[in-house]
Amino acid sequence: MRTFLSLKKPEGLAIAFIIFYSIALGFQVREGNRTLFGKLTLAALFPLLKVSEMSIKVFKEGFEAYLWQRDNALKSEVLLKENLVLKGEINLLKPLKEENIKLKSLLNVPFLEEKKFNVARSLISYGTPFTRSVLLSFDEGCLVEEKSAVLDQFGVVGRIEEVSGTKARVLLLVDPSSSIGVTDLRSGVSGVALGNGKNLFAKYITNEADVIEGDIFVTSGQDDVFPYGMPVGRAVSVSDGGDYMKKIIIAPFAAMESLSYVLILPKVE
Amino acid sequence: MIKHKVIQFLLFLAAVSIQMLLVPLIGENFFLVNALLCLSIIFSLKETRIESLVWSFFLGGLTDLLLFQHIGYYGISFVISSYILGFLSQKMVIGGFFPILLIACLSFILVVLISICLMVIFQGRVDVTILITPFFLGLLITPVATLAFEFIYKNAEKFVIRK
C-alpha cells in the first residue's frame, strides 16, 4: 500500500520507471557484452530476472500448449464433422451397393441370353396362404403389358395380371390359380404345373412318362406367356397320383419369399 | 479536458510521424534529432509532474524502439530529464524564446549523455567519435523543433480556451 502511494509522488514514479527500464536493459544485455557495471546490475537483479524469465517461459509454454490444444480441438471438430458426413454417405451407399449387387446378379442370368427385358422393383408381396401376388414398380419408359413373364435371377416368378401406371400386379407361380406349361429338361416330357400356395404340382403326366426326383423343369413355351427354356423348378417328389397320372411336386427355383428386383420379359406374340 | 488530451495526442502523432518519416529521410547524421524529446520537454514544462513523467516514460521507450536499440537507454534518460525539468518548472516559470531554447539544449545534452553512460554501463565501450556530428546536428535542430512544438501547443491551447 505504501509502495502504491509512493508511486503517486513524482520521485517514486521516476524511480519506478528507472527500475523498470534497468530491469529491461539488464534482461536485454544479458546475452551480450558484459561490463563490470553490467555484471553488478545483473547480479543485483538476478532473482528478479530469473523469476521474470521463468514466468515468461511458463506463460509461453502455457500459451503454446493452449494454442496446440485449441488447434487440435478445432481439427478434431472438423474431423468429427467429416466423419459424420462420411458415415452418412456410407449409410446412403449401403442400400445402393446392395441394390447394385442385386441388379448385377440379374444382368448375369444365363438363361436369358440376348433377350430384351425390363427391370422392376418388388414393392410388396401379399395374399392369403393360398393366393400369392406381388406388386411391382417400374420406370415410366418401360413397356409392360399384361401376360408378360416375370423372372428373377433363379427362374420364373409368375406373370403380370394387371398394369396400372407404373405399377403392376404379378400372379406368382405358386398361386393356386396359376398354371404354366412345363417340360422335363432331361426327358422332354411336358405337362402343366399348378400352384398350391408353396410349390407346384405337375399335372397331365402319365405314369409311363420318364420323370424322376431331381429332374429340372423348364417352361415349355406352349402357354403363350413364357418362352421356352426358362427354369421353373426341380422335382422334389414323384409318385403315383392315381388315374394313371403321376403326382409330381416341383419346388420353384425363384426366391418367392424374398423378391427385390425382377425381370419382365416382353409379351410373347 | 478531453480536447486538451486530443491536442496532446495530435502532437504525439505529429512527433512520431516526424521521427519515423522525416528524420531518416534527411540524412544518417541526423539520427540524434529527436522530435519525441521535444514533446517530452514541452509536456514536462506544461503538464503536471506525474503526467509528464508518464509521457516521458512512454516517449523514451518509443524512441528506443524507433532507433532499434535496447529499450531503456532513452527511456531512463527521458524520465530523468523530465523529472529535473518538472522540478525546475515547479520552482520557476519557464517561458519565452530563449529560456525554452536553453532548456531544450540542456535537456538534449543531458539525455544524450545519460544514454551514452547507460550504454557504457550495460554494453561496455561506445564509439563516441561517430556521435560527434550527429550530436551537434541534434543540438542545433532539436531545440528549434522544441520551440516549434511549444508554439503549436501554446496556440492550440489558446484555441481550446477560446472555444
Describe this structure in words.
The complex is a heterodimer of chains A (269) and B (163). Chain A has 269 residues and is of the alpha+beta class. Chain A folds into two domains: 1-108; 116-264, Rod shape-determining protein MreC, domain 2 (Thrombin, subunit H, Beta Barrel), CATH 2.40.10.350. Chain A has helices spanning 2-6, 10-29, 36-107; strands at residues 118-126, 133-137, 149-151, 156-164, 167-172, 179-184, 190-195, 200-203, 216-219, 231-240, 246-252, 261-264. In chain A, helix 2 (10-29) packs across helix 3 (36-107). In chain B, 81% of the residues lie in helices and 0% in strands. Chain B is built from six helices and no strands. In chain B, 38% of the residues are buried. The mean pLDDT of chain B is 85. At the A-B interface, helix 2 and helix 3 of A face helix 3, helix 4 and helix 5 of B.
Gist of the model:
The complex is a heterodimer of chains A (269) and B (163). By secondary structure, chain A is of the alpha+beta class. Chain A has helices at 2-6, 10-29, 36-107, and strands at 118-126, 133-137, 149-151, 156-164, 167-172, 179-184, 190-195, 200-203, 216-219, 231-240, 246-252, 261-264.
